[in-house]
Amino acid sequence: KKRSVYYFGLNLRAKRKALNMSQYKLAQAIGCCRNHISSYEMGDYLPSAQRLIEFADFFNCPIDELFEEV
Q1: pLDDT above 80: residue 1
Q2: Whether the Cβ atoms of residue 9 and residue 42 lie closer than 8 Å to each other
Q3: Are 27 and 54 in contact (CB under 8 A)?
Q4: pLDDT band at 70 (very low <50, low <70, confident <90, very high)
Q5: How do residues 8-66 score in pLDDT, each as one tens digit?
Q6: What are the start-end ranges of the H helices in the chain?
Q7: Rounded CA separation 70/14 (Å)
Q8: Each residue of 34-54: b (16+ CB within 10 Å) or e?
Q9: Nearest to 16 by CA among 68, 70, 66, 69
Q10: pTM, rounded to two decimals
């Protein structure tokens, strides 16, 4: 797997867990389905550029923070 996809998944999961949110609740907040959240967290693929912006806005962080090595 590409490292960027891997680290995005880890960061997304960590940020979601820090807010004590389920994948379902995050999906509702972002406007996608839970399966997409799961696929992102598993590192199966990256979201679209628009969805990346939505995640950054939701978590109140810059987009590059979502790709930082952990």
Answers
A1: no
A2: yes
A3: no
A4: confident
A5: 999 999 999 999 999 999 999 999 999 999 999 999 999 999 999 999 999 999 999 99
A6: 3-18, 23-30, 34-42, 49-59
A7: 10
A8: eebbeebbebeebbeeeeeeb
A9: 66
A10: 0.94
Collapse the DSSP code of 47 into the 3-class scheme (helix H, G, I; strand E, B; otherwise coil) and give the result. coil
CA distance 30 to 10: 18
Return the pLDDT at 3: 87
d(CA 19, CA 52): 18
29: which residues sit within 8 A by CB, 6+ positions away? 21, 58
Euclidean distance between CA atoms 23 and 16, whole angstroms: 8
